[in-house]
Amino acid sequence: MVKQLGFVFDIDLCIGCKTCEVACRNENQTVGTVRWRKVTRQVDGSFLSLSCNHCSSPECFRVCPENAFTKRMDGIVEIHAERCSGCGLCMEACPYQAPQFDPITHKVTKCQMCNDRIDQGLQAACVEACPTEALTVKDLYTFCQVNGMGTTLGFPDTRLTNPSIVFLPEKERKRYFQMR
Amino acid sequence: MKIFRNACPRNCYASCSMLSYVNNGKLVKVAGDDQHGYTKGNLCAKGYAFTQYVTHPNRLKYPIMQSPRSSGNWKRISWEQAYTIIADKIIELNERYGSNLASGYNKFSGNIGLLHYAAEAMFNSIGPHTKPKGNLCLTTGDEALKERFKQFEQSSPEDMAAADLIVIWGANPAVTNVPQMKYIFQARRAGAKVAVIDPVFTETAAKADLYIQIKPGTDGLLALYAAKRIADSSFFDENYAQDCTNNFIQFKRIMEKVPSADKVSELTNAPISAIEELAELYIHAASSVTWIGFGMQRTNIGGENVQAISALAAMTGFLQKKKGKLFYAHDDLEQFPLHLLKFPEQKHSKAQASRAIDINSFAKNALELSDPPLKFLWIASRNPFSQDNNLQSWMKLIQQLELIVTVDLYMTKTAEISDIVLPAATHFEEMDLIVSYWHHWISINEQSLAGYFESKSDLQITRELTNKLNERSPGFSTFPSELEALDWIQKELSPEIQELYGIQDYTDLLSGPHLKKPEKIPAKEKFSFNILDVSGYLENIKVQKDSLLFPYQLITPQSLLTIHSQYEHLSWLIGTDENSEDTIAEISAIAAEENKLMPEDSIEIFNENGWVDAKVKVNPYLAKNIVLVKQAGKKPINWIIVHQESDQCQETSTHFYDSKVNIRKKKVSRNG
Predict the structure, then answer these.
(1) How many domains does chain A have?
(2) Between B45, B210, B277, which is nearest A19 by CB?
(3) Cα B56 from Cα B568, distance rounded (Å)
(4) Is A120 on the interface with B (CB under 8 A)?
(5) Which of residues 12-31 of B touch A (CB under 8 A)?
(6) Alpha-carbon span A37 to B489, nearest angstrom
(7) Which residue in chain B is spatially nearest to A32 when comparing CA positions?
(8) What residue numbers bound the domain in which A39 lies?
(9) Contact A17 B185 (CB under 8 A)
(10) Is pLDDT at B552 greater than 90 in this prediction?
């Protein structure tokens, strides 16, 4: 692969507004309960915005009996609907709940990092919509930031699949709560 | 695929311009408009959810009527039937009482497009009637800022990016003004400090460099203390300040009454170090922003707090050659002709003028009307049965109403108690003009979709209903029903407005929103401080004692993914993790312990006005005497909120946050 595109998520900048999550639905018109991107609040009050992590060693790719998954030269993991039988093995294998069952087509769908938009030189819909630039896409082969982290609070085990995501930590702040 | 330029008409700071992508008459997606200099191509989650909103299965498609009222026994009727029933009722009431005073409306900000004032025009066109007056939302703060500092008026919220201190007093832009966070973070990246003063540890507070949790209603004291520290500091040039103001000496005398840090700390509940740190930030900032949120003015003491903070803002701005700015809301809208809102009232031989009743206590005041009593009510752009206060009075009022008509897009709480519900258009299905109360851009809203089933715009309804009235009783309405939406838009773009926004006509707006030109500030105009009675204010703070019966202050902020009760039906928004069917009551860990409550317990939040069922959520950051409940939902929290009219006769907003409540564990019914 010549590149590994991946999300860089700056926890310090995320305000939990869910714009990324709904912009994804607007762009991709996912049906019913299918949410390719989800924003969740963590126990410490910070937020995570997660979708498919376009892993270096994607389990979905490995377990699919129909070989419906491919990994592009830029690292994006795609699913090809015409090959998917809807068996759901990938849904069990993925630690991040990225592949989801479409109740209308009875096939699995997932975030493809807006590959059509990326091919046109546009940003992924979630990235474009983020009002605070908390969410960006970078080539992780060349991206380097000293405080970048491979995992964070609330993120599942990364050892199996080596997800293509970098987290930037929250900064310290001064807070005075009421005395009484 | 066709692309149209729209503008979000919600009552929101951002008034985003947006693009709609339409394929074969169907809305396939929406996008931000990068021509909009404030939103810069972004929308919020609610904005991106419009593709679901427009064709949601719950959206109202046809005029419907129920009999009896509240039975849910709806049947579809034609527009013709609806207009006939409504027109006949209005005309019959006119014959019965000799004027149209028995007919009235209740309308507010569900859609802030200028053409939505068509409802007001419709009533003006039939002569004296009954109508609401005032503004539920902003008046208390507006009145307190009436001595508007000319020097502050030009501020664009985009300018926040250049500040080196941003102090947000009781606003939560991370939830209610998402695009503003971009400018706040830009400033922060460039080294600015961001401080948030708020009783609630909000999403915005979590992103601030300095957060001070303050006792509700004491913000002004913190501000006065900072103002006093500034005046006492060696950086402050008193002679310059005296040149700028008429009454600086009086103001200084006031500041002498501001108590010492330990007393301020005791009254505000903020540690002394926090109070001093805020003052130091203000003293050393070269260009500060002071942003007064709407939440803090929703109390009886709100006006005084706003006055005190605005005085601090003056001290940090032009009074010392600094670039301090004040933000609240502006009234660019009032520069427009507003032909529909100000449509001339038809003269009447006997009734002199319309009966205008305070919108904050609409139902209560309407019940007091006699000769004639209110008998017909038209409700548009509003959902009072979820969002107004004193719903007990509303329940009484509907008993005496002979016909209630609601215009809305969804089956709201108010639609549920109406006789006739008329399906309203979304902004994609009508043309309009949107003016913000926060930034200085105007946007045109093109019609990008044909009407959804039989939905119609407020303007179209006014045109057709006034035609029907004139058909049944010639000359009943003076409304010029031949004028189209575009005609009204062109009337709003008067020569003065064209000059102000640098446009020739509406077609200029089709290529993008336009920014208002900066107006010339009158040179050397002296500023007068609003003189706050500090002793009285301190008394007011002190008398806010804990009540034994109702020890908790009820605070009911906006949810992230709805505006008031709008968007409640959308699974894209409501289906996300943090929303639930139940009303959630956030309480402190101490309150949970004192009441022996666990998370998820069912409780009743109650006071003298009634109760609302809720599920407990323990918020570790909440002060012990606050109960926090988000607005709207199945049993809206507003059922237990009653606005207390202030003893001063000035106009106010609705003081939603003066409500005191208690909580108790819900008893399990023995009957199962």
Answers:
(1) 1
(2) B45
(3) 11
(4) no
(5) 28-30
(6) 40
(7) B571
(8) 5-168
(9) no
(10) yes
